[in-house]
Every structure is written in structure tokens, then in C-alpha cells.
Amino acid sequence: MLGVRFRLAGALGLALAAVLPAAGAESQAGDGGVALGDVDAGAGEIAPVSETRDGGGIDGGVEPPRVDAGAADGGGSAVTLPGSADAGPPPGSYNFTETFERFPPGLPPEGFLFRRTGKGGPARWTVREADRAPSPTHVLAQVDADRAEPRFPLALFDNFSVRDVRVSTRCRVLGGRGERSCGVVAREKSEKAYYLARVSVRDANLCLQVVDEGADKQPRRRDLACAPVPVPAGRWVSLALGVRRHRLEVFFGGKWVFGLDDRTYPDAARVGLWTGNDSVAEFDDARADNL
Questions:
Q1: What is the pLDDT of residue 40?
Q2: Which of 162, 203, 234, 241 has the smallest set of CB atoms within 10 Å of its CB?
């Protein structure tokens, strides 16, 4: 069992699931197992939870309720429980996975909107072949190692906007001199406004962050919660961020890590992929699921 320490400074709820596979264990997809240490919460009043998380919430062994992705925030979403008489996909629901196999190497994939948070030149996103890709053989790579800071390239699923969603991917960091990081974003209102879950090779951790604009009009990242996880350079890891109403939950290696409440971005917006500063990284199995 794993001891858990929390740091508090505000009004968010945070909880850590403490039973996870030992570090070094591998899944069929090649993800490393997770051995977590302390979780640092940027803010929160602790809500007690059991030490294992086998279902319910945003992910787990129990299928979550279906929620209309386009419902307005103020009145709540219309929820249809699985198995009920009127169960079925509500308007605006979807379940989408992109493996990049349908795109030729050497070009950016269609159906994505490419943006950049912060300074520097445009990012370079391209489809390419990769050895031992989770879904052989094509991946999406961000290959521009521009060292301007802050600089966060974004590859967003285009043509739809969603509020309640679970966005996930497999990614690996191949280069860079900074934090060497890759991640997923949700509720991206603009290049300076979104939720981010990212892993870092340099920091060997997983963080849930809010990206917003500081007093100097420059983008900034604020930690909501962080936990130590193994992130070897060049190794594929799986990462997911689930958002439903004001609840955010983060997963690593297929396991729930932490969850909290935040109201910074309550409305529907884009989801997608992210790299940090000069990181060169590859992505595969980019997925978005309506919640």
C-alpha cells in the first residue's frame, strides 16, 4: 500500500487511488507500470475514497452514464443510464479513435487544427512511420524543436466542440532539452485557455494543469495536481483526461491517478494533443469519447 500526502490551498476536491501496478510492469501495448508517490494538490478539500478504483466515475469497470455533449452547463445535462429503456446515443455523442494509418507519411493529417500556445514559430506536425508503434505503423509527430518559451504546440480535433469527454492517447518523447513532455487537452477555448494533462520525462511526473493568460498577457500553466510517475525517454505511455461537468479525472497506464473539481472552463470546446516547449514527441491511438 502506498502512503498518500496532500497539500491543500483552496477549494478543490482531490483523491488518489493507491493500488497500482509496480513500476516496470508492462501491458501488451508496452506501457510501463505505475508506482506513485505523493500527490501534490494545487487546491482542495479532501473527499475520502476507497484505495482502489474499479468502476464508476469517469472511467473504470462500470460503463459511465451517457451525457449529451452539447448540453448547456447551467441546467445540467440529460443523462441516460446504460441499460435503461431509452438508452442510445444522444444527439452530439461520439466515440472516435485516430490511429493515423489512413494518412500518408510526410504530411500533416486532415481533420486536425494546428495551433501554438506562446512564442516561437509554427510547430511542425507530420504523419510518419515508427518502429513498434502501438497501432503499426503510422504515428503523428511534432518534430520542431524550437526553444522559445513558453511554447506549446497543439493538434486539435477539428469540426466539433464538446463539454463532457474523455480524451486519451499514447505518446512518447524522443527529444528536447526542457521538460520533455507530451499530453492531452480538453475544453480548449483558445490557444491560451484549456485544461491540460501532461507527463514529463525531466520531472518524472504527471500533472493536471490549467492554461490561462497571466497579467503580462503571456500564457501560463497552473498546477491543479501532480503525481510522480515513470516516464522513460523514448518509451510509449498512455494518458487520459476525463471531464464531466466540473469534475476532472486523470489516468496513466490505464489506471486512475487522481480527480478533482474545477470551474475555470465550464463550457464545450475542442480537445486534442499537446507538446511542451522544444519537445519532439510522437502520438498514436488518439481517442475522444463522449461522457
A1: 62
A2: 234
